[in-house]
Structure formats: structure tokens, C-alpha cells
Write a structure and sequence with these properties.
single chain, 585 residues, alpha/beta, Beta-Lactamase, Rossmann fold, five-stranded antiparallel β-sheet, globular, DNA-binding, transcription, ATP-binding, ATP binding
Length: 585
Amino acid sequence: MPRRIGSHHVDVSATRLVLPGLVSESWQRSARLGLRRDDEAAPVLPLADLKNAREQNPWISRLLQPQLSTLLPSLKNSPSIIVMSDAQGLVLDTLGNQDFLHKAQRFALLPGSLWGEQARGTNAIGTALAIGDFCEVAGEQHFLNHNAGLYCAATPVYGPDGKIAGVLDLSTPATHPGRDAVMLIRRAVANIEHDWACNMLNKDRWLLRLHTEHDPENEMIMVFSDEVLLGANRRAMQEFGLSSASIGSVAWRSLFTHRPDRHPAPVEALNQRRYLARQQTHHSARVTVPPMQEPVHPQALRLLNAGIALCITGETGSGKEHLCRALHQQSHWRSGPFVAINCAAVPENLIESELFGYVPGAFTGANPKGYEGKLREANNGVLFLDEIGDMPLAMQTRLLRVLQEKCVTPLGGNGRHNVNFALVCATHRDLQQCVEQGSFREDLLYRIQEFQLRLPPLREKPDLAAFILTLWEQLGGVKRQIALSDNLLNTLSRLPWPGNVRQLLSFLKVLLALYDNGDVIEEETLPEGVVCPGLRTAPALSAVPPPPDELAALREANGNMAQAARQLGISRSTLYRRLERRSVS
């Protein structure tokens, strides 16, 4: 007998399907949510909400984009798309070939679509979120009938805090399942989780990098501040039975018998296993090439010297932190420290202790010597608060008090410590909009944004070709006598570069790795694996360009926002803004 749930029931036998256990359990959840197999609703969020969701998930642009170079070439000629969602199953972006999708499915996979189980029933994205692990759903295993034409495989992406940040999904026709590409998807997610944990390294933290003797490629990463675990990639979490509750509470001594040095050496773990491990400190990490070497903004320098709070705004990858470091080096504060903290990268339960410090014994796992915190560390120097728009409201209140009173009280203590520093904040968010939405304090906005400096995106740079050549020289291309042809340079200077300087730097580094000394790089001879959206299809400039038709471009691209943006010669974010203005008008 089928199990009845309210007024509905799911009769698995009647579907003539043999459902795997996880899929069968998902069907039961779908029915309990009140869904019917013939439901055709396709919930989609407004563009404004989609924009906010994208801003809250910077890991996609920062960590996923480099992985696309390994994914897209293998999918170029196959009927498949890559879908990126957040932790609620909201589709944030899609890439690939959507021609195989029926019209209804194409619409349902547009950015802004909701694919949690509560919205679509059993599906790879929603079910992967529900079980917290890889999931594939083929054809009629989908709960909703109108999704039966799809084969989907999805893997959750875990942040270093042990929580799911989103999902990477591969969708193909059910008649041609893309199982050969599934391993690429899983490898890309593992690389994202690995790089995310590595990016937490700074001068107050150290990494423990370890692997088993027989599996050197699957590296486990743990991030520590003194003795306390601050983050880890999923491989390390699974290996040592850790969870999000372990972050900020587990000490390395409860995991290992001793702390390794900088050279790979055997280490005994308390789980009775042996690993090859080494520690990596901020000083031993590879030094990256600074993205810009230009004179700093003269007004910003004068204001920083006067102690005026600066707020630098700009798109992701536009060089906000580099500008701040350059301001520090040329300012009256240069003899003092430069202290940077990314408010979006520190777990919410740790940001208070990171900023304000703590006294010995303030909480379980705390350093027995205490910790002075970033605010005191920045005394007589420059404090740079990156992604200030992601700071929790409770921390905004405490920060405002420090800025007003110029003194800090550490966690667990009563003492007050005077501080004097220049403050520079940066964000890619519209802070005024955040104030209106209630996620940012208005009085703090006035205090940190005494002067606002906007960094324009790369596509607005007046002489982008000259800038590209400057970067090329800084990276060593001129020294190696590798030349960018005039045609390639002209094409590169016309591209939208949605990832800005960070994306351009990555692209140029790929070219340097692929070509030999003395080569001339032509656009026509670029390897297919080199990923640079719009590189081969950049539209020619005309004297009087016709007005863009965003909706027509979107229709022509079958709903693919990235492809439509390339056709228009603009970034995806610009296309979203234009569509949003059209919908409002």
C-alpha cells in the first residue's frame, strides 16, 4: 500500500520506477511538502533579490571562475550546462549549451529560479542540499513530471566554516547523461574548497597541509590561529570527523601529537593514522604580483593623512585592497602597521574576537596568552576593513563605539585600550541600499564613509591596452620576450572583463605558463582551453552603435545571461542592472 501523506500519496510502484534509496526518501519529502507530480509552477525571484544574492556569494566569482577553464572546454560541444546556486537552491548563474532544453526547462534554469526541494521536489540541486552530499537525478527520478527530460548531477560547495555555501550542478538531456563530466564537477568543487581554505592564510594564521602517503593529490587543509582551528576544507573535515561546531573550538593538540615544520614530514594523528604534513605561514606563502603600480589618488592620500575615513567602492577584482596598501605606503602612517581583515571571509562566530581580541581564558580553545585583536594591532597605522557590508549588525554596533571613543575593550575583559589609526573600508555593495534594507547601520555608514572613492571597473579604463602591457611587463612577459600581437591586444582592450584586474591577471598568467620565450601570441592560435569570455567574438566597434536591446539578446542566447552579455559587449552585472531598470519602468 502506498504511504498516505495528508490528502496526497506517493505510489512508487505505480511509476514503474526503481528509485535509489536517497531519491525515494526525497520523493517522500516532496510529497510531505504538498507537491504534486504534475505541478508546473516555476518560482523565480525578482532581479533585485537575485542581485543581492549574488553579492552575498562572492565565492562564485573569486573561486569558481578559475575552475571553469577545466570544465568549459570539455563541455563545449556537448548538450550540457553548468548551474551555480546558493545554499537555498537559488540559481545564481548558468554557463554552457542550453539549446537542448525545452522552453519550459530553459526558463526554469534561468538565474533567479529556485531549485530547493520545497520548490521543485526531487532534483539534483535541492536533494544535494538536503543530504549535504553529491547527488544525481536522472530522467523520471525527478519528482516533477516536466523535469523528466533532464539528467542532473550536483555537488554542494562547503566553505571553510563547515557550512554549505552553494551547489555546482551539471545538467544534460536525460537521453545523453553527462556522467563523463561528473568527475570534473566534483574535482572543481574540491579545488574550490581547497583554495577557499588556503585563502584564509594571513600573518596571524598558519595552515596545516597534509595528505596520505598513497594519495598525495587529495590534500587536506586546516587553518589555525595559534592553537585554535579557524577553518578547513571538506576533505579535512571528513577525515577527522569535524563539523561547523568544531570551528573556533578545536585545538590542533586534540588532533595531532606534534606540530610539523615547513618541510613535508610524517606526523602522527590522534585518529591513529599517519600523514605527510607541513605547516605554511604567511611569510612562507608565495608572493603574488601586485596588480597595479600607479600613483595613488591624490585627494585620497591627503584625506588619509588627515585621519579622514575613506570608503572605497568597486566591483569584485577591481583592486581595492591594493589601492589601500599603496595609500598606506605613501602616507604619514607608513611607519605604522597595515592591518587588513576581510569581513566576509571570517566566520561570524569569530569576527568579534578577531577585531576586538580577548583576555586569557575568555572562551574554550582561546589562546592562553590572550589575543590583542586587529583594532589594537592597527594602532598608529592603517586598518583596512574589506567587504565591510558583510559585517554582522552586532559587530557594527561595537565598531561604531570604538570609532567614536577611540578605545577597545577585549572579550572577557574590563580594561580599555586607547587606539589611533586611519580607517579605510571597501565594499562591492551599495551601502545606502543596505541601510534601507536594515542590514547596515546608518550612523556607522556616515562614520566610515566620510569620503567615498569609486574604483571604476576595468572596462571603463581609458587606455586599457597600455595597462595590459604594463601588467604584462610586471608579470615578466617582456623579460621573457613573449609578445602580445596587436590584434590580440586590441581584442583584449575591448572585452568587458567582469572579473576586472583579478580576471585579467589570471588570464595573462595562463598565457605566460603556456608560451615559450620569444613567442608572439596571436588570438587565432590561442589554445581552446584558454577561457576568456568574448575573446573570439568581441563585436567590432562602430562609429554610431545602435541602442542595445537586452531582451532580444537574452532571447537569442536562450536565457544564458553570460552569453547575452558577451553579445552586447557588457558585463553580466551591467546586463542585470539594465534588465532591472526595464522591469521597473
